[in-house]
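User: I'm new to structure prediction. If I give you an amino acid sequence, what do you actually give back? Let's try with this one:
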Amino acid sequence: MRRAVLTLGGTVAGLAALLSFKTHSLAASAPAPSAPVASTGTSQPMTSGTASGVAGSAVGQTASAAPKASAGAPKASTSAPMTARTVTGTVATTTYGPMQVQVTLAGTKITKVTVLQRTDDGAESDQIDATAIPQLTSETLAAQSAHIDSVSGASYTSSGYIQSLQSALDQAHM
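Assistant: Good question. You get back a string of structure tokens that encode the predicted 3D arrangement of the chain. For your 174 residues, that looks like this:
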């Protein structure tokens, strides 16, 4: 009888502790962007992702715009037109071959990612790359960083892509 009371009391205490647990919001703990955002007078959406080992999650944030001009005043352009620049990442060596990406930037915005070298270990590697690389590229353009999710079933391709992408962004000082 005593064991039943202790077991029941422990279960109730554990359940109470579990139900009172509060999680932290990802949006509140997301780091601020490290590069300044050029202001054009309108809000520009920015996204930031987190990578934790193989998996991560994207968190959306909105950058605040410059103060709005009064209704009657014309808007003055204070920023020069941004020129596109291309930065090539280092070659990441994977078990199935090299991965190398090239990033095109307009200011601090990633506008294009081109894969220059990809894993080359036969037909299966080609099939995996054909599926994984478009997913990695679209996540890069959405996240605007190298903090992206790896593609399931393409661990080596994802790892090499992310390494080369990060080196390109480091060279661009993002």
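You can read the tokens as a compact description of the fold. Here is one thing that stands out. Helices lie at 2-19, 26-29, 123-143, 155-171.
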